[in-house]
Write a structure and sequence with these properties.
The protein has 14 helices and 44 strands. Helix 12 links the parallel strand 18 and strand 19. The longest helix is centred in the first third of the chain and has 14 residues.
Length: about 850
Amino acid sequence: MAVTITTTSCETEDDYFLNKATAIYPAFVDNLPYEAWTDWVSNATIAQTSKPYFQFKAAGGTTYQWEVEPNTNSVLPPGLSLLQNGQLSGTPTKEGLFEFTLRATSGADYDTKRFKFKVYPERSRWLRDARFGVTTHWGRFTHPAIQNSPPRDPPLNGTGTQQFEGRVTQLNAANWAQQMEGWGAGFIEFSAIWQDSYRNWISTTPTRYQLHTENRDFVDEIVAAFHARNLKVISYFCPDYRGNPACVDGTQGCTDPVKFSWTDADSNGNWGTPNLGYITELVVNKKIDGLWMDIGGASDIYGNPPINPGWLYYDKVIPVIRHHNPFFIFGVNPGVRGSFNTELKFGGTQVLYPYADFVIYESTLDSSTNAIMSSEQATPLMSKKKMAIYVSNKVTRSWGWGATTHEDPIKDPVSVNENIGLNWKAGATVSMGLPVRCDGLLLDPRFQPIMSAIGSYVTTNKAFSEDPQISLLNNTVIITTSLPARIFYTLDGTDPDENSSNVYLNPIPITRNTIIKVRTLQTGKSLGFMKQLVIEGYSTSGPVNLLLGEKPNDTLSYQEVTNLYKTVDNSRFYRGMQFTVGSAPIIITGIGRRSVGTNVTRNVIVKRYFDEYPVYSGNLLPDISSTGDYYFTDIAEIRLEAGMTYIIAIQELSNEKGIPDADRKKYYANTFTDIPYTRDLRIIQAFNLSPLGDFYPFPLDHNNKMDTVGQIVNLKYRVVSDERKYDLALGKPVRFLSGIGGSQLIPSQYIRYAINATDGNPNSYAIAGGVYANTVRVNLLSLNKINRIAFRFTPYNYATEFEIYCSTDENGSDAVLMNHYVNNKNLDFQFKFDPVLTQYVFFKSILPNAPGQEGGSMGFESIEVYCDGL
């Protein structure tokens, strides 16, 4: 039998879908190594169903030797190479269609075959480029909710299903698609299955109650209508069915154990097996394009409890997705702010990395009409894998139509559109939650004005300028675009825009370590996505300051650590510190880690604290110098703004294979009991990041508490002295208190930190949570004579009656009243007074003191304190 190459080309998506057994598995330029997936089989793991290569196959021989046929104008995709055993592997670096001829030889016989192979951008590129979508949480749970209450539903055609299908008289999927396309949406997020475990399609997965439609397949209707307009369909998917409307009208988790048992499951009451069946149906049969998985799928960051990994068997689910539809995308919701009583912001946390294709920000249930204050705002993602950012916001308080939706306040359209624009600037896509009536009418008249305003903004502004190409050649940066465009760039790590950046005219000579950030602007389009190139390898020149000196100071209480953590064997947490820049900006040129004499390269991250904005990510060279000294790595220069608070952390406890245990676990930890203070930079406390560089999950100690052991990091820096400010409050500590001398309060929404009031950034707000009439205390850190105070409330939160005090005592025992304001409607204040000696300034809110009052609780955009002429 002659040798015959049996592998087939993969030029189009259909080439794969129609020939899964023979076609080359599609490749994606996502910064990760190429993988080929097979379907899940019993007891298989992810490692057994995915391979870091594609295996070319032939028949008619025994063993085969593969090679690219010479003189055939063959080009393998850049980054991929072919081994003699027929394995195609590597990391794809360029998109496009590539043609090549392969020869397979077995003994004296051989065969040649011409292949066409398309390499795609990252899977989630279409979601990034869509920029806008509409979320519709709709189903049996929609008010008035139809309860899951056996025995009314089973068997099929029980009264619940009949009632549900009978009331849906206004759902016209073609009209939905047309309307959303008119609003500029590129996709719909539709609740194929919601928290009540009811399936909006005619499902074949066996369950104990068979809770699904019988005569109308709403998922089929939606998919057909939206795909007909080249729009995508993402399904909301809840792995844990705790929203049974028998408990509360579809808005809260189910706590009643009897009614909780009414949620659909398999015959044993488990969710994992049915969820696998549902996802298989949606991917294979329903042809949806993606899944928005709710927090019940985030077991890898929360653990059990509260999230049971048995709700979603990822070893089975991921192979099903990747094998049956390589272009399918999914993301897992990390939860809203303060999930599980943890005072942290969760939005943007990477869940199920590296398999997930987008990160999620979900807005909270908030009655505020101002979207800037109540909706989620993303920051650029710091991830090796190219992923999309998905922001889930909404036009009113709730996602679905509930008992009060007809009267709930609607968001202000101006602030909603401003929020959309800010998310676009961060590279995010926004999906707007629109409550849909139980009869399936998409647009209730009361939501028509806001959706019209949103649609007008989106269709006018969503077209974005093309991505630039940045290259470094012979110490010169060259930036190009395929179409005419203005190019804006920065060299100090700040974000470029059309108003305050350099305009690219000619190639840029590079003489130092730098981060070049670039955006383009084409006529009739919005600014494009920001691209950057980190350039390192140059030696730092010129005078620099050292935060901690050349050698460690004994007062810093360093401790060499090898086994301090509960998760020591499998963790790669980042250990570091939180710090605030002084009265002048600084340029960081090098980072020093106290050496433990190990030959390990470690990643370092710098983030802005109030919004987790990624400032820098790079590698520290192995600290092979003498143990105990600081070992510095020169980095791309980054600018840190005066008064702003940042996090710097170094990845420790690496579990990389091949690294000796003694090398990967050792570092000098610090309890921060004696913290150095300089005029240029104030260290606040230890701060640790997750193995992916997120604020959550944080490391735990042996008592299962948050691990507060970090490390003090040394820095090389220059001071931008000509930009020094003389605001005594700039960068100083601030606290929310229940009153002068009262207990400390948490920040509103867990992200409106107190220190935002003195960080010099007008876009960060300081608002206390829990108490309307609260007090804000600024600590100047030493006694100062002052004679002027200036401050600005946020545009949406201000005190209508308040007092200002000065004191030398943190509890205000000698507080002196400086001013008392009543019937206030102003935002900006500045007043002078005779000099007083003080260390603490108190802002005590008296009104508003309850919800619904004018002002909406006291919030600060800025607080400044001066000693003019003294």
